[in-house]
Amino acid sequence: MKFYRGSAAAARSYVEADRSRVDDYYLTEGTGVAERYVATPLPAGGRSVPAVQGGGTLHGDAYERWVAGYDVETGAAKGRLRDDAHALRFVEVVVNGPKSWSLVAALHPDIATAYDAAMDRAAGEVIGWVAEHATTRVGPRGRQVQVPVEKVEAAVVRHHTSTSPNPRRLAIRTLLPHAIY
Asked: What is the pTM of this model?
């Protein structure tokens, strides 16, 4: 897990920079910067079972607004937003597999399809787990109480490139925003 406290513009620059690298030929889909997901815990026999649904593609401007803590559909702030240098923007969880899987996927299209699907399921599991276990604080300062979240938004950023000379088929960065409501 990595806690990101930088600017929304810097987060956007980071993921867009990966799209224009020399080894971009590993980037298979080429659409958007990230995929947005919305997870809602649903009651099921006394415990929550998260429902994770796709929320659309986030292109540059929408991704930057999402990182900054604004609803990408309405433009409204998602809660009270901090704007100081220590404001937490999102928590990052990387879903990855061994490089040998990436190499095999680069050679066999059927394995690449299965590997992509497995990575998608893994990202969905991370998002669902967070939705099931996350809490937030409500109430006035000094009298706040922890309550389960009503909804969690996540952005999944795919990296089809590698920092090493060997190909990396796919790494998924699941970004969980600072404003969970």
From this structure: 0.78
